[in-house]
Amino acid sequence: MTNIIQKNLIAVAVSAALGTTAYAGEIVINTDTSDPAPKAAFEAVIAGFEAENPDVSVTWNLFDHEGYKSSIRNFLTADAPDLANWYAGNRMLPFVNAGLFASVDDVWEENGLNDSLASAAGSMTIDGHKWGVPYTYYQWGVYYRKDIFADLGIDVPTNWEEFKAAGATLNENGVTPITIGSKYLWTAGGVFDYLNLRTNGYDFHMALTKGEIAWTDDRVRATMANWLELIEADFFLENHAAYSWQEALPPMVRGEAAMYIMGNFAVAPLREAGLTDDQLGFFQFPEITPGIELAEDAPTDTIHLTANAKNPVDAKRFLAYLARADVQTEINATLGQLPINSGSTVADDVFLQAGFEMLSNTNGIAQFFDRDAPAEMAKAGMEGFQEFMVKPDRLEAILERLEKARQRAY
Amino acid sequence: MSSFAKYWKANQVRLAPWVFLTPGIFMFLMYVIFPIFQSASLSLYEWDGLGEKEYVGLRNYVELMDDEAFYTSLKNNVIWLVLYMLAIPGGLFVALFLNQTVRGIRIYKSLFFFPFVISQVVVGLVFTWFYDPSFGLLNVVIQSFGFDPIAVLADERFVTYGIIAAGLWPQTAYCMILYLTGLNAVDPEQIEAARLDNAKGWKMLWYVILPQLKPATFISIVVTVIGALRSFDLVSIMTDGGPWGSSRVLAFYMYEKAFSEYGFRMGYGAAIAVVLLGIMLVYISGVLYKMYRDEKGL
Known about the structure:
The complex is a heterodimer of chains A (410) and B (298). Chain A has 20 helices and 13 strands.
């Protein structure tokens, strides 16, 4: 624990030291993009911005991805940078409520972002104001072993019956239908998102994560009943509670499991592990309740102007630059993700193209369970999902616990 | 001579210790005593670390009394306290075993002490792999006897015991080193006298060796109890409190509520810390009482 406190103190000290040296024409950006691809993407964006705006110099503080989640709270209150990256939806709500993010309605107005970034406008709006600029998102869905499906003569399932039948065929042939590692809980949140979106639709899902619907509601039970069908049909990897999401990849690579309900970031490690595009495929999570519009999970990453920024004028120039179509094309090509700007082009990658096509045809985009629901509810919920996947007979107790958490959290 | 210098001269012996103690006392007050009161007062507030603090009286404690996760953590803490004590006989056994003059004994001693030197994080990772249901050594052995593999860390029945076993590895080494130094101080003449009286084996250990090891045993108990109560790193590394929170201990639960990604309920975390402090106080006052009695001359 002392370690974490120390880390925070260092983060505060660093941002304090850097912050006090800021002068007009300099902006400070804090990001958590410490993984290789995001880091390279931000390097390029900042270099591009500085080349176009020689009067502004950018100071960029790079934080460790996990440590950032607690250090952002410190540097926003202690000595704020001008810009900081974060996530859309309910995740930014605490900072908006605490008055630490500034609204950027004028950036949206002046640069026509209400049109070009329209798809993410909803998730950036709180109390009728825009609180940042989204620059990337990625699809969730089912990644599957094309070659195994072909060998066993399984077609890509488009509805619930076909999905269950596909799983049954896989099980008969000794292949686990779905691999998952639920040690860190959020993967189970993804499965719930899709089952609930498909069983009850987007509006219900959003109302549930906003705390407007009781967890003991019959419609939630219907979702859990569908989940139970999969659990009883041995759909999920055995002992998944012992694995992280990365540790659940090898069974898929070895061909012992055929599907993975995941975000697009799973493609890179699967390719590195040796799967070619002939072996690895993607399909949209199949329909469950006929007639319900297919909504998707597509978490959006964002950059925010801080309320205590020293140089908001130049910071807004940076936001406008980042929102531009050509800049988003470039940054997302490096990230391996999808641009928000409707004028951008999607990189020439089979999974990105598939995701882009899917998301262009949907009207409902959810952020993800732990971004749509407030932190406390998200934690209780995902823990309950993990427990349900191992001990489905405890459904009643779990739902009651979640209902108790809901009444506390909202 | 000024009056201050005179006063100093007259009371130098009485004052000097306090002058030397001042920095230590200041640090202790600043970094130990003051934060204790600070968290106690924080536990009466609802605070997310960002906005305004809201005074809620004892509501955090009332909620704690009705919190399943709190009782799970409390129960696990008790299991930790009890089972962690196995490190003491374990350490004694290894120390007795290693307390001989054989060629290269220093190397063996170092090897047995090794788990205490490496980081708890590494111990946690090693045991996570050891327990891994698909390739872990434990399950390879179990399967070779024809049983089904056990996912120790994914099963709420075994998970706490699995983590304690991992914790016992370095803790036994710690107790071993305490006993080894204790054994060096055992009086050879007493052993010789006991031999003449025909004492050997268990009797020798129980009536002659162990009483002389009493100080080492006392220190072992102290460090083991403290180790059990602050068990945090292993839980965090091996299971992250899971599956579904069944391996949490109080220290970890407090961290989760106050500092983790889904936490930032500072008041609630502080309330858990206060309860943990209460448990430690019971134990610490016991230790202090015993030390006080010992110093008075039994």
